[in-house]
Amino acid sequence: MQLTVNGQRREVTHPDEMLVWVLRDELGLTGTHYGCGIGACGSCTVLIGGQVTRACLTPASAAAGREVTTVEGLARGERLHPVQQGFLENPLQCGWCLPGHLMSAAALLERTPDPTPAQIEEAAGINLCRCGGYNSIRRAVARAAELKREGL
Ligand code: FES
Ligand code: FES
């Protein structure tokens, strides 16, 4: 089976495997993290067709014919995505949760360029941070929205 991941067609030999493992083990895209495995933590979050998706609960075959975006697909060459810049300016601690927060924030800003604090709270709240970095996460997403509106 073929998948389109970060704009590239990739051959996948285990389509029934969960997407997180196909991305990490088959395609070498280890930016997508594995945490709980039960859809609770969000560290495995990727976008399928622009929709926030838990890759630990989603077979790779479910992404057939749709665009998969992982954290490796956010930057454009040397140019960071606004969410990456936002978190760079508002760093977290261990960073295990970071890929999930980046992907959720990218999806939020795609549909809501000027999110309210409540909308940021709601979008960020679907991902856990074991280090308790929620204030940094809120600031990072708000900063990313500002940067995106400025055209970064
Ligand atoms: S590893 Fe997928 S939600 Fe935790
Ligand atoms: S920074 Fe450690 S889990 Fe979020």
From TrEMBL:
Residues of the 2Fe-2S ferredoxin-type domain: 1-74
The keyword Metal-binding belongs to this UniProt entry's keyword annotation: yes
PROSITE patterns: 2FE2S_FER_1, 2FE2S_FER_2
Keyword terms of this UniProt record: 2Fe-2S, Iron, Iron-sulfur, Metal-binding, Oxidoreductase
Coiled-coil ranges (or none): none
Keyword presence, Kinase: no
Family annotation (InterPro entries): 2Fe-2S-bd (IPR002888), 2Fe-2S-bd_dom_sf (IPR036884), 2Fe-2S_ferredoxin-like_sf (IPR036010), 2Fe-2S_ferredoxin-type (IPR001041), 2Fe2S_fd_BS (IPR006058), Beta-grasp_dom_sf (IPR012675), Diverse_Oxidoreductases (IPR051452)
One of the record's GO molecular function terms: 2 iron, 2 sulfur cluster binding
PANTHER family named among the record's database cross-references: BLR6218 PROTEIN, OXIDOREDUCTASE WITH IRON-SULFUR SUBUNIT
Protein's recorded name: 2Fe-2S iron-sulfur cluster binding domain-containing protein
Taxonomic placement: Bacteria, Thermotogati, Deinococcota, Deinococci, Deinococcales
